[in-house]
Amino acid sequence: MIQRIVTELGPWAWWVLGIVLLILEVLMPGVFLVWIGIAAIVTGALSLLLWESAFWTWHVQWLLFAVLSLVAVVIGRRIVSARGPASDQPHLNQRGQSLVGRTATLEQPISEGRGRIRLDDTMWSVQGPDLPVGARVRVTASNGRDLIVEAV
């Protein structure tokens, strides 16, 4: 069946495959099928030019498609990762990072490098130099679970 479709469509089979892959990318976005679809369309464009050539067998076409797919995926990943995340809230879901620079009063003393502060409605474990209850501290970093503080 597939051989019959390819035979009847000729070089247009690659165009059909590319368009199907692009449609699948729209239906199931993941920014992956688009690059393979582009590789199929490029293979189709070359097929239109080289269809009558003796060396342009299905083996060569599939090999070219495989190589173009790999190249397109690698280039596409670089393009997508170079843009980086553009967000008006870069610390969304990173609450500890959003607290860096804030000041607070110690609720529990920092003893042996560990204590607790209250910021807004949450008690946070902190690490820093030993300080008594009521000392003012500034959050300098977050290591995921604890806030790193220094005396103000």
UniProtKB/TrEMBL annotation:
The keyword Nucleus does not apply. Its main location: membrane. It is a multi-pass membrane protein. It is found in: Membrane. Keywords: Membrane, Transmembrane, Transmembrane helix. Pfam families: NfeD (PF01957). The chain crosses the membrane at residues 12-42, 62-80. Residues 97-150 form the NfeD-like C-terminal domain. It comes from the Bacteria. This is Membrane protein. It comes from Shinella yambaruensis. The lineage of its organism: Bacteria, Pseudomonadati, Pseudomonadota, Alphaproteobacteria, Hyphomicrobiales.
